[in-house]
Predict the 3D structure of the following.
Amino acid sequence: QVQLVESGGGLVQPGGSLRLSCAASGTIFSIYAMGWYRQAPGTQRELVAVSTSVGSTNYADSVKGRFTISRDNAKNTVYLQMNSLKPEDTAVYYCNAKVRSIATGVYWGQGTQVTVSS
């Protein structure tokens, strides 16, 4: 079994910064990709950023230049540095990982709330 545990959400003023972390644990042979999605009330879950095992990254247009995804492969951890936050970034942020394990598949974290408000 694989677990993803997120941390780092909270309340921040517009223009501020937050750093999210997500650590994967369990029986993990390798991780193909790790990323972040978000879901605001009344909307569908959307991709924010993803990092593959070969080091490539992809971002939603709405966060390019403001958010940075990074990974520590030795710790099976992915980070999302969020700068210049806007009220429209308010959402529950979910960690996602495609993992090669005893039960290979896509796993999700429980979500962490990010609120951008003055």
Observations:
- The mean pLDDT is 95.
